[in-house]
Amino acid sequence: MITIKQAMEKMATVENSDCEPQNAWSAEDVAKLEDGLVYSRIPGDDVRKLSLPSQLKEFLREVGICSAGYDNAFLVTFDSGGTAINETQVIGSDCPDRIIDYSKTFLPYYCGENRDQFMPGRVPYGYVFMGTAEGGHAYLLMDGTNPENNAVYIWGLAYDPWGEGDNTLGIGKCADTLAEFLYNLCSREDL
After folding, report:
1. pLDDT tens digits for 19-48?
2. Which residues share a beta bridge with 153?
3. Model pTM?
4. Fold category of 4-184 in CATH
5. Domain coordinates of the chain in residue numbers?
């Protein structure tokens, strides 16, 4: 099984990658992120929080933020059986507030349980933002309901034929673990 440390060692050899430990998060940064990932504020409902997957927490404590340079492509599979090649932009963040803000853009903060009636085609409940792909037009996500599920997923902001509507493909799976995702980033030609 590939570890975060092994993935970071491999990424350090990639031309133009930027994965430096000076951006590593403190324990206080991680705690702030965990406290800020509120899942539901529906009136009369208990406040629920998302949890960080264990490998994301380890990545943030070791590196914080990373870009993969030129070898940044990965394969996505969708429940429909379709596949796509995407490229990472940024993985992680330099501060907890950025991940909290991105995650809140698709949490049921305002519309509650009827959110799908008002905002169809949005990210399903329970995911934590962990990076961007396709020039910021797709979110890299992880499961925020099970800290032992370290799989990486993607949500395209517009997968319709014209690139201007809501996501019609749903959530895609990029890798079984964050470490595997990072380790296997490569050039488009090598996929």
Report:
1. 777 889 999 999 998 888 876 555 666 666
2. 141, 173
3. 0.85
4. SMI1/KNR4-like (3.40.1580)
5. 4-184
